[in-house]
Amino acid sequence: GAGVSQSPSNKVTEKGKDVELRCDPISGHTALYWYRQSLGQGLEFLIYFQGNSAPDKSGLPSDRFSAERTGGSVSTLTIQRTQQEDSAVYLCASSLLGTTYNEQFFGPGTRLTVL
Amino acid sequence: AQSVAQPEDQVNVAEGNPLTVKCTYSVSGNPYLFWYVQYPNRGLQFLLKYITGDNLVKGSYGFEAEFNKSQTSFHLKKPSALVSDSALYFCAVSGSYNTDKLIFGTGTRLQVFP
């Protein structure tokens, strides 16, 4: 079956603009995660959705960042009033909870460049 | 709190030589341990995992990892490195008390020279 997909693959925007990044998880996966990977850095956890539960937003760096997941499937990460330090690769992952472990499947990422 | 440490930013090895990429962890409960690999301009790919059972786990592309509970380590190994193994490797852990979230290390860049 299809893996996790993300769009766009690349996004260049001007400082102060809003951007939306999209993630389509693997069908049937109940959990969805957003991470940020800055140049030369590891993965920074941003937000986590599990089924109908309230999302874990503990990793969002500021209130300019928000995310939603509609119908338990597609997710959109929105960054308002983008800043240059927001430039990074944004990765989405999904997993099938209910198993005894949590293997996450990653999308190819969206490379965001804020000029 | 859960944490993962990858003490080496980069590992250099000659092709044909054995390689080791180090990882240590700290979790509550029993650890679930993972290795992911990221090739240039590509997303993360699952490599292998340890959940329970045999301490030596085998994964994709000839990689293996050894779980050592007393040293809280999960080092990634391969007997004979290939140039094509050059990539960024991430160790990750979740604990049996909180399997919802994976904590990732900062990554180790493996460079295999011909």
Summarize the structure in words.
The complex is a heterodimer of chains A (about 120) and B (about 110). Chain A contains no helices and ten strands. In chain A, strands 2, 4, 5, 8, 9 and 10 form a six-stranded mixed sheet that branches. In chain A, β4 (about 30-35) and β5 form a beta hairpin. Chain A has about 120 residues and is mostly beta strands. Chain B has about 110 residues and is mostly beta strands. Chain B is built from no helices and twelve strands. In chain B, a hairpin with a 2-residue loop joins β10 and β11 (about 100-105). The radius of gyration of chain B is 13 Å and the shape is globular. Chain B starts with a strand and ends with a strand. The interface of A and B includes residues 4, 97 and 107 of A.
Summarize the structure.
Chain A is mostly beta strands. Chain A has strands at 5-7, 10-13, 19-24, 31-37, 43-50, 65-69, 75-79, 88-95, 105-106, 110-114. With 114 residues, chain B is mainly β.
Report helical residue fraction of chain B: under 10%
Distance between the termini of chain A: 37 Å
Q: How much strand content do the residues of chain A show?
A: over 45%
Secondary structure tally, helices of chain B? 0
The description of the largest β-sheet of chain B is:
6 strands, mixed
Low-pLDDT sequence parts of chain A: none
The proportion of residues forming helix of chain A, as a percent range, comes to: under 10%
Ends distance of chain B: 41 Å
Oligomer: heterodimer
Q: What's the rounded overall pLDDT mean of chain B?
A: 91
Estimate the global geometry of chain B from the Cα principal axes.
globular
Give Rg of chain B in angstroms. Answer: 13 Å
Mean pLDDT of chain A: 90
Computed Rg of chain A: 14 Å
Overall geometric form of chain A: globular
How many extended strands of chain B? 12
Strand composition percent of chain B: over 45%
Order of helices and strands of chain A: EEEEEEEEEE
